[in-house]
Amino acid sequence: MANAEKSTELQAPETQYEEINDLLDKKNQHYKEGFFTSAQVETFDKGLNEAVVRAISAKKDEPEWMLDFRLKAFKHWETLEEPHWAKAEYAPLDYQDYSYYSAPTCGSCDSESGSESEVDPEVAKAFAELGVPILGENANIAVDAIFDSISVSTNKREDLSELGIIFCSFSEAVQDYPELVQKYMGTVVPYHDNYFAALNSAVASDGTFVYIPEGVRCPIDLSTYFRINEAKTGQFERTILVAEKGSYVSYLEGCSAPVRDTYQLHAAVVEVIVLDDAEVKYSTVQNWYPGDDEGKGGILNFVTKRGICEGKNSKLSWTQAETGSAITWKYPSCILKGDHSIGEFYSVALTNRSQQADTGTKMIHIGKNTRSTIISKGISAGHSDNTYRGLVKILPSAEGARNFTQCDSMLIGDQCGAHTFPYIEVENATAQVEHEATTSRIGEDQLFYCKQRGIREEDAISMIVNGFCKEVFSELPLEFAQEAEELLAISLEGSVG
Amino acid sequence: MLLNIKNLQAEIDEKQILKGLNLEINPGEVHAIMGPNGAGKSTLASVLAGKDNYEVTAGSVAFDGQDLLDLDPEERARKGLFLAFQYPVEIPGVSNKLFMQTAVNAVREEQGLPPLDMFDFDAYAKDKIELLEMRPDLLERSVNVGFSGGEKKRNDIFQMALLQPKLCILDETDSGLDIDALRLVANGINTLRSEERSFIVVTHYQRLLDYIKPDHVHVLYDGKVIKSGGFELVHELEENGYDEIVKQHQQA
Ligand SMILES: Nc1ncnc2c1ncn2[C@@H]1O[C@H](COP(=O)(O)OP(=O)(O)OP(=O)(O)O)[C@@H](O)[C@H]1O
Ligand SMILES: [Mg+2]
Fold first, then answer.
1. B116-123: long-range contacts at Cβ-Cβ below 8 A with a sequence spacing of 24 or more?
2. Interchain CB distance below 8 Å, B94 and A456
3. pLDDT in tens, B208-230
């Protein structure tokens, strides 16, 4: 079957940078990232089969072991059924109706991905529009920018490499650091972990690879920005982050996609490995296109994120602000294996219009005196559904383990739903597990009180919602926290009245 | 004239509550409104403030020369209409500081003034906190959360002092206050009195009125003002109740 390899579709060379203005103006004023970049791209035909998996691997010039990993995963994936246990309704996807590889090609550039000078100008403009500093203009942050299936630029790598820090695209890591990738890939999220992890393992497009050597405190935030541009394309990034003994890193990711009237698929896998005394802060601001008011289009965000606190006294914090996507299915988790290790999950998930989010975390306590904290704030507006699903599991070995969970839900209007499914399994009698939950509603009376003081309804809602989310936002790096607040305000537009 | 209400009729859930109410208020005047439970006093306050489940079916309200009924509630507030609620609302997670800074700046924007930053606002709020003897950590606490009934009402008067409105409508601000709090609130109101600022004070009791000495007193009954007079009307009501006045009205 040569068709996957050969019939790549090259689009018109004139590269105009167009916003889908009418769409934005009419239905989607709330989604300012909804523009489309028309760069020259190479896109595989729709469809998924072994030949496509081989073609992706060939495209990236991958070594044998990587192709084997993909093929094993693909074979396994074919035996699985799409899961529908989440509290989100969608028709089974037609996996043959997506393209599994799409990348901008730059006429004048010889290599396909990589260093800073070779970014397609249209793609560079798109990132500039999104406020992503891909040219290294912000001194406090290093950025890996991923456009559809490939990483188009990773900056500040040289500075970081002086400290021994590896920060590069996943594809490059496969070429340049094969031992490290082989050592860690699939150790936290095996290819057979679940349906979407298997799919990702088979068709992984690109992603970020981060390695912080022993004793190094990464002086700047590392970040990845994911942009899905092409229609009917899946993005399947694979991220691996390793923090060696005594190291520290703060890693951020942001995402967006153009306004499309069909679902786009995003199935990522993230693996984090934290060794003795090391600390990783992993923050996400997720702003994928949520679909329109009737629930048409939007990103299906089916993500497996998991970290292992392998060493003693290690610490992993997940902080997420989820405002986008039509459907979110995401449970960033911590396996607390090292004694005295700490897992944290701080989450704000906001759904509006017809969005559906089923998100939460798993804290698996294995080591002694391991501690975990879960703070989840769910906000539902419009006709949306918002579910917290979490598991706290204390294994017999986890002497003295402790967990504190707080799940708060806020409802705006009376057409939306909030659901909480906290599962707790305790197999060690010395463990302490505490759970608190509240549900509140922004009432007409509260809004009228604010308006009577001269405060506009939108401002009142965003003030109330931000107050509700304060504990989580305070965990985000400052700039990100501000972005998250603004996103909340935008996502809430038109949620009442 | 600051406020001119003519033949105001309003209903809620298709039940008519205000049935042709007239009231004229000049700048600097203090008007007391009394009347039995269910007469429509809070309804009048809500209609003036623009609460949206009330429907005005007839009549007009001019406020500072504009058609009040045409404005959104937040515009009315920005133009200087303030309502101290019979039941102030709690807003968890939102500090009094953020709430009132936002409100003060909304009004300032309307007046073409630059916004107050956090430091300016703190300085501005300090006197008012002292005036009403509010707890020193007031600004850090969430709006009305964990406040006693009396504290909530004092907080509304504190907000009024910050916003410096043209028309202050106080809906039973005195009920539920202990003697000291009542004095503080009355003192707060008296401090705010000026030649431009007018008040509508809804109350069931003489005590607050003794402190603030209203210029005019109205009796509201069954959605209408059935009798108006000076301060002496308060004594008359205190002695005879509403029966006598209602009877006179029904005979007329
Ligand atoms: N949603 C509603 N549907 C029907 N009637 C209502 C509704 N809300 C209020 N009312 C009625 O409107 C009338 C006026 O109520 P309002 O609260 O204005 O009285 P009030 O004069 O402020 O009384 P009080 O002295 O007890 O505070 C009452 O008879 C009340 O039952
Ligand atoms: Mg009342």
1. B121/B97, B122/B97
2. no
3. 999 999 999 999 999 999 999 99
